[in-house]
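Before our next group meeting I need something from you. Please put the record directly below this note.
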Amino acid sequence: MNKKVNIVFMGTPDFAVGSLEALCEEGFHIVAVITAPDRQAGRGRKLNQSAVKKFALANNLKLLQPTNLKDPDFLNELNSLDPDLQVVVAFRMLPKSVWEIPKFGTFNLHASLLPQYRGAAPINWAIINGEQETGVSTFFINEAIDEGAIIYQESVKIGSEDTAGELHDELMKLGSQLVVKTVRGILNNEVQAVKQENKKFSLAPKLNKENCRINWQDSVRNVHNHIRGLSPYPGAWTELINADQKIELKIYKSRILEEQHSLEPGNLIVSKKQIKVSLTDGTLEILELKLAGKRKMDSRSLLNGYVFSNDSKMI
């Protein structure tokens, strides 16, 4: 295997850094890193660099940040790098004019066992839907999103209390190993990619305000899964009715309690040490939350200074 083949890496968030770092540690020749343009963030609207950009700069890697992947100047520069292989991890959809350039093709790492959970948020939806297993897949990119021929896959179990953040970190490590294995397999001509079965697939749509809202009419297990599937980011949210106030809040950690009750869903049961919410088939204890304008805290800390009315409820 010739590690001096020209590899272009494309990615943006933390999840992609693990794979880029693994390729560098293995001595592969990264001729360029392509990541998203800097974006304004925070109250001061400061320009924020992607995690991949920070890694590239720290390791003296050539960096490109195109705003338009079809721009002729960008395509000319990309072609001038003479890439043999392109590796994509958590980037955006590529036009054909980009992914068809390398002689060995362009492959993507996806955080699910394709064809399950195609889309933007596979880690979150696997937990939200109560899956007990997921994994990572590498596949050759084609015209359709996440539908290319599968190269390799590795699976992991999902614990009943795992959060999206914990699963993210596990899959990032597993995925980085699979990326290295895939590069080696391609360069050694050992890959026999398999066409995906489109009859049995599920989607992992982009997270938004609507699908992150908690439905207190759902089962206690489903609400618990929804909370851990969105923790720590972007956070499952709801509204609290307390006295004459309506307050938006996020819940990051919960626990299912084997308790019977006769309350309507969403009603709060508050003591000096606990915040519980009634659901159709049980009770959910809120362990960690954040009220709008406040810091994230555990429920006991909140109870030290916050007063709930007798008829307070979640809606």
